[in-house]
Amino acid sequence: MTEIHGTCNEAFEPVRTTFEKHFEEGLEQGASVAVTVGGEPVVDLWAGDADDHGRPWERDTIVNVYSTTKTMAATCMLMLADRGRLDFDAPVASYWPEFAANGKDAVLVRQVMGHTAGLAGFDPPISPETLYDQDVVAAHLAAQAPWWEPGTQAGYHAITQGQLQAEIVRRVTGQTLGTFFRTEVAEPLGADFHIGLPASEDHRVADLVAPAMGIAGRGQPVEGGLAEGSMALRTLSSCPLTGLEPRTREWRAAELPAVNGTGNARSVGRIHSALACGGEVDGVRLLSLAGVERVLELQSDGRDRVLGVPMRHGMGFGLMSELIPLSPNPRAFFWGGWGGSIAVIDLDAQMTVSYVMNRMAPALLGDLRGAMLTFAAYQSVAAAD
Q1: Is 67 a catalytic residue?
Q2: Of residues 67, 237, 300, 327, which has the active-site annotation?
Q3: Average confidence (pLDDT) per 10 residues, the chain, 385 residues
Q4: Which end of the chain is more exposed for a tag (fewer CB within 10 A), N or C?
């Protein structure tokens, strides 16, 4: 039986039980889960191995969380909007003039936030190594044409959203998004989350156990598989990832605000607790309440052209729906990462649920480990009422 480490409030024992069950059923190699309520940690658990050689998953183990990183990039964008330095209703080209090329002069910042900008992938395709040079990637995205009329439909911008946001932040602040995140978010909150990881922290990083076929394998189910000619295949094969890239120093050092954040459940929850509590936690204010509530502005509601399922996209986060009923509360939002990491933020309950792991599920959608932990957290809250 895998030993579960950390602390768990008695009322939240269902979370511990669910976490332990996942290890007993062989679903995990190493993982951590955290729950905060009112900014206070009520669950902070970790267990298992950080690699195939039995290195234990420790309290300070961190791991690449893929698209859960998008919640951090979105927070930076929301902060700039809240400070009046960024207008979500302005054209991207008003901050980044070169972006106007090839019919993109009217693409709005909010369309980047809501996956409706029509730039779901790279055209022509690029290699993962190209991502490490933001100047090259920005020029690439500025030159290409949208794949559909911007604002009319959503299609998950799996990698491009972060690189678009990175360039907007750089044009607005003169800083990289990773630097802005570190100095304005992570350091003030004391959160061990990184977009661009220093080499000095490599010894703490867990190795991801990657799926056999990578993200663009024909057998990977997004919704019934990646069909030839589908928007899903076009998007995911435009920069095909294997899941092994996070083992390299080059990937870790890069700032890829959609996909290469490194942290643990505790650090994810720490940052998100500020959002759940109306923008402030422990005297550190990231956003006004109105600034947080902008997340709830619906950007699209319908079948996502890349994910292949109905999605409700808010401003940088997913909103609750019949397909994804992670919370019973209307003012809750979420996102997750390839492989299974998940983050839920609930303004009504002032609660966050965060889960990260190293054994990756093969699909972009459909892994239930994080969902079951989330349901256990809500079960705990309901039982305490």
Answers
A1: yes
A2: 67
A3: 96 98 98 98 98 98 98 99 98 98 98 98 97 98 98 98 98 98 98 98 97 57 55 94 96 98 98 98 98 98 95 98 94 97 98 98 85 98 89
A4: C
Cβ density class 162-190: b for 16+ within 10 Å, e for less: bbbbbbbbbbbbeebbbbbbbebbbeebe
Amino acid at 267: S
Residue 63: domain span: 4-384
pLDDT at 326: 96
Q: In terms of C-beta density within 10 A (0-12 exposed, 13-18 middle, 19 or more buried), how is residue 197 classed? A: buried
Per-residue burial over 85-102, b if 16 or more Cβ lie within 10 Å, else e, is: ebebeebbbebbeebbee
Structure-token match 């401003």, residue found: 315
**Quick one: pLDDT at residue 219?**
38
Instruction: Give me the count of residues in the chain.
Output: 385
Domain of 78, CATH number, reads 3.40.710.10
What's the structural domain count of the chain? Answer: 1
